[in-house]
Every structure is written in C-alpha cells, then in structure tokens.
Design a protein that fits this description.
By secondary structure, the protein is an alpha/beta fold.
C-alpha cells in the first residue's frame, strides 16, 4: 500500500456543517487522520437530506456518508469530556473549527483559546464573516452571504423582469471548505503554530464575483449594470437542454457559421458580442429546437464552440465522458453513487474512500491516550512534523505559470500571495486572455495593460514573454523549467502536447517537478479537447441545473466554475509537494475543472442514487430555510430602477421567533402552522406575500438593522462593485490599494483568511506589464544583454502585443 501525502498528519475536527466537513474530507483524501469530535446527539449533518428524504434513526444521511469517508468519530460531552478533547488536541497537528453544538460551543474550545493552550497547532476557523470585525457575531446563511458578496447580481445572471437569483446547491459551503483545506496545508509548510481565520463572505466574493471592485475603480463602470439572459446559453433542443457558449468574438463568428447565418457576422458592429447574439435570439433558439442535443454538440465541438449537456442528478453519471473516465464511484458504506476525487495525481497517491464512521465508533479506541489505533505518535511526529520557520508558507518555491484567463491564474495567484516566486509566461502573439477583455480600444496607448481582471489575478507575479511556436522560445522555457518546483498550465490537452511539453518531457528536465495540468474536461475521455469556460463546466456538472426558476430554463452561474477549479488545483499541488518532501519524487497533477465542479455538486447524484430524489431549482428558495427569498425594498438602485432587494433566510425556530418579534407579531405570524419548519415550508407563498409587503415599505438598511437586532439572517443584495462599502471587509483589510505603472492606485481583493503569523500586507507588487521581467529572468538563465536584445529583435520575446 502506498503511503499517502498526509499519512501521519493528525487533525481534530470540531466543525459542523458542509464547509468543515468538506475541508476535512479533502484532507482525509490526502491521507490525514481525521478524528471528528461529535456531541452525544451527533453532527446535525447525519440527519440531513436536501430532498427531505426520511433518514431512519440509527442511520446517517447520504451526504454525511459521502463527506465523512475515511474519518473517525468520537463522542465527547461538553460537560465532562474536556480533558479527553484536550488530549486529542495535544496529540494533533491541526484542528478545524466552526460554530455549532457540543464541544465547539464551549468557551475553552473557542479558536483563540485552543491556539493559546495548544500553540503547536494549526487552528483553522471557518465562520460566516470571520472571527474579527463588527459583523463577526452576526447571523448569516450561505444565501445571505451570497447577497452580501454581490454574487447574486454580480455577472448579470437572470431575467430582467424577475428578481435576481442565487447560485443553487450550497456551492459557497464547498468553496469555503476548499479554501480552508488549502490554508491548512499551506500552514503545514511553515510548521503550523498559527490561528487561521477564514471568512465565508470573503470566499464567496472570490468564488462568485469577478474582481468587480478593481474593475469599477479602474474603468469607472461596473462589469454588468443589468440582468440579461445569456444567448444562446442554456437552450432547449429536441430531446433536452444544451449549453452553448459564446465568450469571444471568434466563437460568435463560428456560431454564425455553424447555424448557417454568416450574414449575422459584422466585425465593424458597435454592438458587443452579447448584444449581437441577443438581436438574433429568436432565430438561434429556433435553430436549437430543431436539433438534438447530440447533433448540436457534435457541430459545436467541430467548430470549437464551448458546449455541454445540462447535467442533473438523474443523468450525470451516465454521460459518456464520465463513464469513460470513471468519474463516479460507489460509496464504500452505503452503496450510493458519489463523485470520485476532485483531482488526480501520480505517483503521489490519494487515499481511496473508506466507510464513514458511525456515531462514536472510535471513542473507546481514542480515550486511552497511549493506545491510539494504528498510530505510533512519537514515530509519526519524528517523520512528519516540520520545524517552524519564518516567512510566508510558499516562500522558496518557484512556479512556472503557463495559465490564462481565470481558473489557472487564480490558482497561481494564490500561490504568489502565499509567497511563491511565480513567473507568468505569455507571448506577444498570445497574451493572457484577460488582458483582452477590458473593452479598451486598441488605439489607446498600452491598452493591453489596462485590464482590471488581469490586474486582479496577477499581483505578486513576475511576467515574461516567450514565443513557444519557435524552437528558441521552447528551449528557453525548458531552461526556465529547470529552475522550477512547480509548472501549472490550463490549456486543452492538445496544446501542450503539440509542443512536446508532456509531463515526461518536463520530468526529463527536472525529475522532481510537480506539473499541474488544469484542462476543462480532463486529459482523457471523449470531451477532453472541448474548450471549457465556466458556464459549460457548471452545466456539465449540474451546478446550472439548480440555478434559476422552476418554470424557466436554468441560468448559467457564469462564475464559480473557474475559481473553484483554481482552489482545488492548489489543494492538489500542495499534496504533491508534501509527497515530494517525503519521497523526493515529483508528480503529475490532473486538476480538471469539471472534476472539481462535480465534487461541489455532489449532493445531486447522491440524493438521486440514494433516495431516488431529483433535486430541482426553486428560484431563491432553498433546502435549509423557510422563509428564504429576495424581497424588494422601497428604494431605487444606483441605475435609477426599482430594483433594490434584501435577502432573508430563517433556518431555526429561534430565528423565526426573532423575525416575528422584529415584525411586531402581526396576526398572520401566530398561525399554528408556522410554528415548525415544515409548516413554514408548506406555507412559503403566504410568507412571501406578507414579507414582500413589509419589506416594500422600508429601505434595505432599515430591514437589515431591524432583523439583525433580533438574530435573523438578512442581507442587502449588493452590487458587487460596492463591496468596499461593507464595514466588515474594511475592518479585516480584505481590500488593499495596489499601485501600477500604467493604471491608477486601485483596491484589490486579497486572501479570504487571516493568520496570526501574517502577512500583515498581502500584495507586494502590481501585476506585471507584458514581458516586464524578461531581462531579469533571462539573465538569471545565463543570457547576456546582447543575446536578450537579439531575442527581442527576432520576436522571441517582447513587451508589446504583436499585431
């Protein structure tokens, strides 16, 4: 049996809910020993089913069984087992904490107290707003956090004649868990001994919005100022739903040709691609309706237009690509279908899922401190404990960053902010795609340096240009790789393979290299060469299926697919680096965007295979709260429309009582049918009618102040470019001003967690100008100034976009 990267790494799990459970699942997948400490009644997640399926007493809900694979369970009573839990913490390397019942609610097991009493630990705390700041104790749910983040309206999702809609499926919980896992792994590299304070609001901002503050401040306009349907987007074919993307001008031209309407192509049109597509929406939808899903996808693939079937719980595991890749596996305890790992690697080996524990299954084994099963603590500490060192977690690592657009750069950007020396490789003919999407006229000087998205994704990096179509460019890339620890790329597989840059070729240059490949659909399978943008990944994984209104086609979230892939790829790279530290071996990491998306959409296939329940989209209602919805206020928005909203979610009876108190106990709230969560769900239309009238007479600030004062989760539906106006983000320093040689000083988002060991400031350098560090990097590789000048004259390197 291979040793897994985190073998011997011990984690005590004091969390409740999906975010903490997903974090420790990722760590357990890596081989960590995760001991889940539960109250006598068990983690509430054991009784959870999103579809409302009856979880028989003495058994566990399927989602728990998925998230708890490979973990151990002990029961600890907060009234009498504090010494037992302290003994577990004394023997551990890390602890994961979130608010909840049992031990985690005891004052002596608050994160700062754990850190004080057990200073050797990495203490990772997941909370809605963070442990510090004026909102740190405010109530919240994922739904209200999406509203505060700007993610509900951030990319113009939805129909203009209806309320905006949130991204369904509890994706924010999974994002927070993935960030918490990566933060814990990064902490290990510098010896732990720190308190990591993760904010779910901040992970939602990074996962559901597209650097809106930087965009607005740099260009003076928001990314989107209105909701509009994506055309063609998700459309109904003869036999089902299909997603067809049109993210670039070339894809629009190809779509026109594919549908037989080349007359629609107008390269001189003042309209954007989106506007041109919308002009022909009726004709496009009619064309789609006359074809089958397979016919459309075959054509779109031939024209290299992003496309995907719209997956859901009932069909996703049967799609040919997932069947061929073995993307789904059988739960080892309860036999339902679940996704496999969100990434793959070799020779570093992830742990195959082991059966989830029953409540307290391992309590007796862990109580005697000197007889922990299968583990000699002294030996594992000697082998695995890393000495505490100063500096950032990834300091000393060099990363060759061959990524573009969003998913790949978001991964390498996190590495740069955590201290790695990241060298971003572009070419003057094929620069990073985000340089080209700011809408700056090509007649403006240095227009390619004015993209807020490129700036937001690339601070702290070095930038070089190399023409990889030329043998000299490829030879220089090889010399650069020889100095690196990690290579990251996110092209379709054929691109690097056509240049001979396979893992074997890279390993021949640097035998212990970690090479992370981030294709949309993976390195094999029938869809492997399909172009992948966030929206087709979201459709293919099932995320889109749960987003939108039940009487309309699903809406593309158009956001989470990329950053979700980036944070999962970072987790995989950190595991591969841990394997290298132990063995001296490098690894090939395959971090396909779609595998990461399948993992955060897991509940759909789990619910269908375990209970026969097909989860459905329901607008702004959700499985965890009633009432839950958006309600219009009496204000006009900044664009002069009656389009201002608040998000409200009641998850508990106590919150319902708080809502009734805030409303002044009007007669309609006293109905016996509203005293239980099931009764409130059954009468949701009635609740919506009354709450819509009440909110419609007030401003958002009045509503938030009144409801928060009574413990009710509530939020303003923020325009995302107004994120800097949130006092919680200001107090935590989530945005930092960044100077730039071409653009004015502009706020940039940072990491979604703070550490007791720093850094105090995240951004140390602006995003690089095109080829800004060519001479610096090439001199390091041994070239002199004359050789560098010759390379520029020959077009191998450069600092200006080639026309």
């Amino acid at each position: 049996m291979p040793e897994h990267p985190l073998s011997g790494y011990a984690i005590v799990d004091l969390s409740t809910g999906i975010a903490g459970a997903y974090c420790t699942k990722l760590l357990a997948d890596g081989g960590a020993e995760v001991v889940k400490v539960e109250p006598p009644q068990g983690d509430p997640l054991r009784a959870w089913s999103a579809s409302g399926a009856d979880v028989i007493e003495g058994t566990d809900g399927a989602l728990f069984s998925y998230l708890a694979c490979s973990k151990r369970s002990v029961v600890a009573d907060p009234d009498g087992d504090t010494e037992f839990v302290d003994a577990l913490l004394a023997d551990a390397d890390a602890v994961l904490w979130s608010r909840g019942p049992g031990i985690a609610a005891a004052p002596q097991f608050a994160p700062d107290e754990i850190h004080r009493r057990h200073p050797h630990l990495t203490v990772t705390a997941i909370t809605p707003f963070g442990l510090t700041g004026p909102w740190s104790e405010r109530p919240a749910t994922e739904f209200t956090l999406q509203a505060w983040s700007g993610g509900i309206v951030g990319l113009g999702r939805g129909a203009p004649d209806r309320a905006p809609v949130y991204v369904g499926g509890q994706v924010g919980e999974y994002l927070a868990g993935a960030y918490a896992s990566a933060a814990t792994l990064a902490s290990r590299l510098r010896g732990g001994a720190e308190l990591i304070d993760l904010s779910m609001l901040e992970t939602s901002i990074l996962g559901l919005t597209y650097y809106p503050v930087t965009y607005f401040e740099m260009l003076g306009r928001p990314w989107r100022d209105a909701r509009r349907l994506t055309v063609p987007g998700i459309a109904r074919a003869k036999d089902g739903l299909v997603d067809i993307g049109c993210g670039t001008a070339q894809q629009w031209f190809d779509l026109c040709a594919m549908t037989g309407h080349v007359e629609w192509i107008d390269e001189d049109s003042p309209l954007t691609i989106t506007q041109q597509a919308t002009e022909h929406a009726d004709e496009l939808y009619a064309w789609v309706a006359d074809q089958t899903v397979d016919e459309i996808r075959d054509l779109a693939t031939a024209f290299r237009i992003p496309n995907a079937p719209v997956a859901h719980g009932a069909n996703v595991e049967r799609l040919d690509h997932y069947v061929e890749r073995g993307s789904f596996i059988v739960n080892p305890r309860d036999g339902f279908t679940q996704p496999g790992h969100p990434y793959r690697m070799a020779p570093a080996a992830l742990r195959p899922p082991e059966p989830a524990p029953r409540l307290g299954e391992h309590t007796d084994l862990y109580r005697p401190r000197n007889s922990v099963p299968g583990r000699d603590r002294g030996a594992s500490t000697a082998r695995n404990a890393l000495p505490r060192r100063d500096g950032l977690p990834l300091a000393g690592l060099r990363v060759v960053d061959m990524t573009t657009f969003w998913a790949g750069p978001s991964c390498t950007h996190l590495m740069a902010m955590l201290g790695a020396d990241v060298i971003h490789v572009e070419s003057t003919r094929h620069p990073d795609g985000t340089r080209l999407i700011a809408g700056i006229p090509a007649t403006e000087q240095l227009w390619w340096e004015r993209s807020p998205i490129f700036s937001g994704l690339n601070t702290n990096k070095h930038g070089v240009t190399l023409n990889l179509q030329h043998p000299t460019g490829r030879e220089l890339l090889g010399r650069l790789i020889a100095t690196a620890d990690v290579v990251v790329e996110n092209f379709t597989p054929r691109v690097l393979e056509s240049m001979g840059l396979t893992y074997d070729a890279v390993k021949a240059i640097t035998p212990d290299i970690v090479m992370a490949r981030m294709p949309g659909f993976g390195l094999d399978g029938p869809w492997r060469d399909n172009p992948a943008f966030a929206y087709v990944i979201e459709a293919a994984a099932g995320i889109s299926w749960l987003t939108g209104y039940p009487d309309l086609n699903p809406f593309e979230p158009y956001s989470v697919g990329d950053p979700n892939a980036g944070i999962h790829a970072l987790n995989a790279i950190l595991l591969a680096l841990e394997h290298r530290r132990k063995t001296g071996e490098g690894s090939l990491v395959e971090a396909a965007m779609v595998d990461a998306a399948l993992s955060i959409a897991a509940e759909q296939v789990i619910e269908y295979s375990a209970y026969g329940a097909l989860l459905q989209r329901s607008g702004n209602r959700g499985p965890t709260a009633a009432p839950q919805n958006l309600y219009r206020t009496n204000e006009t928005d900044e664009f002069g429309r009656l389009d201002s909203w608040v998000a409200l979610a009641v998850e508990t009876d106590a919150q319902w009582a708080g809502l009734c108190e805030a409303l002044g106990h009007p007669p309609w709230t006293t109905s016996d049918g509203l005293t239980t969560a099931s009764g409130r769900r059954a009468r949701h239309d009635l609740l919506d009618d009354h709450l819509a009238r009440w909110c419609g007479e007030r401003t958002a600030n009045e509503i938030v102040d009144m409801l928060w004062a009574h413990g009710v989760p509530v939020a303003k539906v923020m325009q995302p470019h107004r994120q800097t106006e949130l006092p919680q983000l200001s107090a935590r320093g989530f945005f930092e001003p960044v100077d730039h040689p071409v653009n004015p000083p502009t706020p940039h988002s940072t990491l979604p967690f703070r550490s007791s060991r720093g850094p105090q400031r995240v951004h140390t350098a602006s995003a690089p100008l095109l080829g800004e560090h060519n001479a610096e990097v090439l001199r390091e590789l041994g070239l002199d100034d004359e050789e560098i000048s010759r390379l520029e004259a020959d077009g191998i390197i450069g600092t200006t976009i080639a026309r």
